[in-house]
Amino acid sequence: MTKSCFKKQPSLLPKMIVFDLDYTLWPTWIDCTNGPPYTYDETSNCIINPLGESLGFFPYSAAMIAIIKSFLDTKIAIASRTTTPDWARKAIGLLRIPELGNTTLAENVDYLEIYPGSKLKHFRSLSEKSGIPCHEMLFFDDEHRNKEVTKLGVHFVKVNTQTGITPFQFENALHTYVANAGVKQTSVKDYFK
What we know:
alpha/beta, three-stranded antiparallel sheet, 10 strands, disordered C terminus
């Protein structure tokens, strides 16, 4: 997956693209595993704990990170409400992005908000730390309840828990971001107040 696979290049890019971890970049809840210590397996680009549980990316996650790194002026962030933030940090410090010289995910992420709590708190913190307004952020997450961040102006994309983010969904999200740039996402209920 490369930028050249896009049918049409977006005319505008988000200033920050934010990912949840569980069932968004990888296919499990990390806090439902037995956790570290982890060993990195280069052959499968997975981490394995002493019980043999493995954790790796969904098929397109690493390539997506590589594409975003090629976007000038677009930052990458993680916003996860996992109850095991230390485990998540260990995992992103081991999982690799082959397209970026086998560097770790952690080396390619600009901002981390990994702790239990509301995604609203995560995004307020991301905006404060980065200086990027929430309406210039695109967020991929598997849980519909986290769409609450649209109240802050964040552009939300619901991810299929079976596939993770596909190239088609990623490209569509970028074009939808362009179409909605400057428009705060709201619900239909907001129009009937």
